[in-house]
């Protein structure tokens, strides 16, 4: 039989208190390092990440606002074009309406102008400027010119006739009166405008010969 071998005896010569202190010191240092690393992360990395996130969010909002501004600018441009088109159409309608009224007025103007000329008077020139008509003509006598002015004054389309010049000429043995007069155009109401030309022509029935 083999004899029983005795177990080796290990003797720790270090003070167990010193070993405990070393362990605590190393743990403290590890905690300090961990705290320092955590501080670096909190102070340096997290704010950067946070602010980068804010910057990205703000840039996204800016891009959205820019897109909306572009859309609004296009809409405003369309509105401006529509307003311009509307104003152009209104102006054209006004011009067309004015032309229609002017066409009707011109017809009445010449109709009344012709109807007011008495016997023994004929016109040699006519000029209309800014509502005032200048008439040049020849009459058999001054009385015919006076009758012509009366007829113009009685017409609903003329007012304020005034004699500018009248000259008598008997050089060829025929008595004539060359005259120039001015008369203003007026805008009669619908009743006056619709009066038949024949009614106005009746003003000259009592003209002197």
Report on the structure:
This protein is α+β, with helices and mostly antiparallel strands and 209 residues long. The protein has a domain at 116-206: Gyrase A, domain 2, CATH 3.30.1360. It has helices at 16-115, 142-154, 190-193, 197-201; strands spanning 121-129, 132-139, 158-169, 176-185. Strand 1 and strand 2 (132-139) form a beta hairpin. It starts with 15 loop residues before the first helix and ends in an 8-residue tail after the last helix. Mean pLDDT is 79; it is low at 190-209.
Short description:
With 209 residues, the protein is an alpha+beta fold. It has four helices and four strands, in the order H-E-E-H-E-E-H-H.
Topology (elements, then pairings):
Blueprint: H1 16-115, E1 121-129, E2 132-139, H2 142-154, E3 158-169, E4 176-185, H3 190-193, H4 197-201
Antiparallel strand pairs: 1-2, 2-4, 3-4
pLDDT below 50 for ≥5 consecutive residues: which ranges? 190-209
Count, helices:
4
Helicity level: 55-70%
Radius of gyration: 56 Å
Give a short account of the largest sheet: 4 strands, antiparallel
Number of distinct beta strands: 4
Characteristic terms for this protein:
single chain, 209 residues, alpha+beta, Gyrase A, domain 2, four-stranded antiparallel sheet, 4 strands, rod-shaped, disordered C terminus
